[in-house]
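Quick log. Single chain, no ligands specified.
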Amino acid sequence: MDHITFLVAVVIVTALAVAAFIILMSRRNPVHASNANETHEVSVRGAVPTEVSTAA
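-> predicted structure:
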């Protein structure tokens, strides 16, 4: 087996391993009808500061 074929095989095996890992991790906490709309408070940004001071 030459070097390029070996490298391609390594890339394919690595990609398959990563895909399998992602699939297995995604099945740990599945989304279904009873938990799809759980309340989860997400604050994007707090109140905008009204006071701005100068740097100099």
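The longest helix spans residues 3-26.
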